């Protein structure tokens, strides 16, 4: 008898962690695995959160979170996307976007139901679908098609058991962002086939071409969309573990019920910090975006200098999905070689699904000096 459950044993170990766990064995590594901002949370957010804690904001909140924060989020989506979410019924505050995703899947997925995923994909999607008793269905996306999940690609993978589609725009790991036309095509499929769309919008403010558009804002899509979002990437608040979900009142009600049995509520202090971030954080968000733009341009220049590798310029997030097919080695072998011989850490593309083979995920959420140093080292071993 296994002491551990079949449920947990079926979950594959993250390929990202293999490289992370090896990094301490080497000195002076330039870490381009990082999946978070290298910036510290803006000081005014820290200050106000500290003051809130000193004033007594250290207790449980409602399962769905502080109403004031939900009201701020409702106002944000009304202003930015033109859609209204009732703060008291259609919004829940969670311990990061990861818990929002977990509560969403546990709420809507019955055993054996299928969830469509673009491949490459963020590995936690697969794990959480499996935990919920669902079946992940991987739909190939291609670099030459911009890495987006298209209606044409989705259709052959739909069955009578399909319950939902997950989209991530801008995307981790590919940096793709969906155009309005592409969202409209996915929306048409969702409405025609009566599917739920889970829209992961955690990188919505880190976008380089155009503006973010939520699929929930399209006609007829708000009732069948669960929007997942977070303060982690936008405000450099990864350690605060604060996110949220928006959806129909029937779904959010059940998510809030489940929240009682999972975490009770998100951190009260983190919720206070999130309120300040939404009210006062726009300038800080813009400054960080400008830094990311500089780094994006720099890393594209460095790749251009390196003929053995290439990439599709990312439209959002802070990742390059680097094409290494000319090297004629597996992505894992290349990642290990670069770590051992160049002291540069990257993530094998195979960690993000079958279609990720032949690529590496490279984060440019590091200083410009580190980007230059990393590519000098890489060129030195090619």
UniProtKB/TrEMBL annotation:
Domain Aminotransferase class I/classII large per the UniProt entry, residue ranges: 27-378
UniProt-listed Enzyme Commission number(s): 2.6.1.-
CDD domains reported in the protein's UniProt record: AAT_like
Pfam families: Aminotran_1_2
Gene3D superfamilies assigned to the protein according to its UniProt record, in alphabetical order: Aspartate Aminotransferase, domain 1, Type I PLP-dependent aspartate aminotransferase-like (Major domain)
GO biological processes: amino acid metabolic process
Cofactor: pyridoxal 5'-phosphate
Annotated keywords: Aminotransferase, Pyridoxal phosphate, Transferase
Enzyme class: transferase
Any one Gene Ontology molecular-function term assigned to this protein's record: transaminase activity
Family per similarity comment: Belongs to the class-I pyridoxal-phosphate-dependent aminotransferase family.
Protein name per its UniProtKB record: Aminotransferase
Native source species: Aerophobetes bacterium
């Amino acid at each position: 008898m296994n002491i551990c459950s079949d449920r947990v044993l079926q979950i594959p170990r993250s390929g990202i962690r293999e490289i992370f766990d090896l990094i301490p064995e080497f000195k002076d590594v330039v870490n381009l695995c990082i999946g978070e901002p290298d910036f510290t949370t803006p000081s005014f957010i820290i200050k106000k959160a500290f003051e809130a804690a000193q004033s007594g904001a250290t207790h449980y909140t409602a399962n769905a979170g502080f109403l004031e924060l939900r009201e701020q989020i409702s106002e944000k989506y009304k202003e930015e996307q033109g859609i209204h979410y009732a703060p008291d019924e259609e919004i829940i505050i969670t311990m990061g976007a990861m818990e929002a995703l977990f509560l969403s899947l546990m709420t809507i997925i019955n055993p054996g139901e299928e969830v469509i995923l673009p491949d490459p994909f963020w590995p936690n999607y697969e794990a959480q679908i499996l935990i919920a008793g669902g079946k992940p269905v991987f739909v190939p996306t291609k670099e030459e098609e911009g890495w987006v999940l298209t209606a044409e690609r989705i259709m052959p993978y739909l069955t009578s058991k399909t319950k939902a589609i997950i989209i991530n725009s801008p995307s981790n790991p590919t940096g793709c962002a969906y155009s309005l036309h592409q969202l409209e095509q996915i929306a048409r499929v969702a409405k025609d086939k009566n599917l739920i769309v889970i829209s992961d919008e955690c990188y919505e403010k880190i976008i380089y071409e155009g503006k973010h558009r939520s699929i929930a804002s399209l006609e007829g899509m708000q009732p069948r969309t669960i929007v997942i979002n977070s303060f982690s990437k936008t405000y450099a608040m990864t350690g605060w573990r604060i996110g949220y979900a928006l959806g129909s009142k029937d779904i959010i009600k059940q998510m809030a019920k489940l929240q009682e049995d999972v975490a009770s509520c998100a951190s009260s202090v983190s919720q206070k910090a999130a309120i300040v971030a939404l009210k006062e954080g726009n300038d800080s968000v813009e400054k960080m975006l400008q830094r990311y733009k500089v780094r994006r341009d720099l890393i594209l220049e460095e790749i251009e200098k390196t003929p053995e590798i290439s990439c599709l310029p990312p439209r959002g997030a802070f990742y390059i999905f680097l094409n290494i097919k000319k090297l004629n080695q597996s992505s894992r072998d290349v990642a290990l070689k670069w770590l051992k011989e160049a002291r540069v850490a990257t993530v094998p593309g195979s960690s993000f699904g079958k279609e990720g083979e032949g690529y590496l995920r490279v984060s440019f959420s590091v200083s410009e000096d580190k980007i230059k140093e990393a590519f000098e080292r890489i060129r030195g071993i090619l």
